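Subject: Re: docking follow-up (fe (ii) ion)

Dear J.,

Thanks for your patience while I sorted out the input files. As discussed at Tuesday's group meeting, I've set up the holo structure prediction with fe (ii) ion included as the bound ligand rather than trying to dock it afterwards. The sequence and the ligand SMILES I used are pasted below, so you can double-check that they match what you have on your end before we go further.
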Amino acid sequence: MQVVPLGPGFAAELRGMSLADVAHDDAAYAAARAALEEHSVLVFRGQEITDDSQLDFTRRFGPPEVTKVGSLGTGTHFITLTTIGPDGKVVPPDHRYALRNKANQLWHTDSSFKRTPALASILSGRTIPKEGGETEFVSTRLAFERLDPARQQQCESSFVWHDYGHSRAQIAPGLASPEERAALPPVCWRMVWRNPVNGRGALFLASHAYAVEGMEPAAGKALIDELIAAATAPGASYVHQWKSGDVVMWDNRATMHRGRPWPAHEARLMVRTTVSATSADGLDSVRPPFPVAAE
Ligand SMILES: [Fe+2]
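The structure tokens for the complex came back this morning:
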């Protein structure tokens, strides 16, 4: 296996290893897992992708998430992100599918709004537009390490509220349905997620983050905005240009990502699977020391 860094300072392509190798071979899994802990974003090229092969790969890293209400694939382990409507045609720009893609174009980390956040996401490109539609990543670990020590300390002792409805409301009022909002009440996590393998901290922030516990709402939001702006400053990102057969995996504890636009008339279909975080991934260390909501 060869690990080819993609930069800047994170993200790597794994060569000489397939999804099936990782799914079925302990040594391949150990190498991929170590690369994920180290590089935060992993790219596999030229894969033979099926739903089964993607799910077998996903399961090696932990329990696969069940897709929430209101997403295409609800109740399964797959989320389909598409602009192709049930009639086989590309949907108009004001269609719910298109607005969802627009919401994905805000900087975020997947599932921080859930009661169990995500260790990692796995995205496969099934129908790729000719131009645009890239996925852009930043390292919130490197962003944390760029802060001065006093700011680092402040972040590490802060807790952030995340709400799915908040990020969707930035795109269109009512984009999160009453059913989704009821299923996804706000949750709260420590602002810094320390990787239990290498001890490195990372900012755990997203478009879903809307308040800092104990801070005035405006001051908390200003702090979140300032940290996201610093994390996503020009030159800090890796932009993945999708090719057929690509699979990209990322560590939601240590990165943010966003989709990039593409010509509205072109179809794009991606399939995501997601691994829930567990105690072994440091989940207990990000839980707040105060009660959050009635379970
Ligand atoms: Fe995402």
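A couple of observations from a first look. The mean pLDDT is 95. Residues 217-231 form the longest helix (15 residues).

Let me know if you'd like me to rerun anything.

Best regards,
T.
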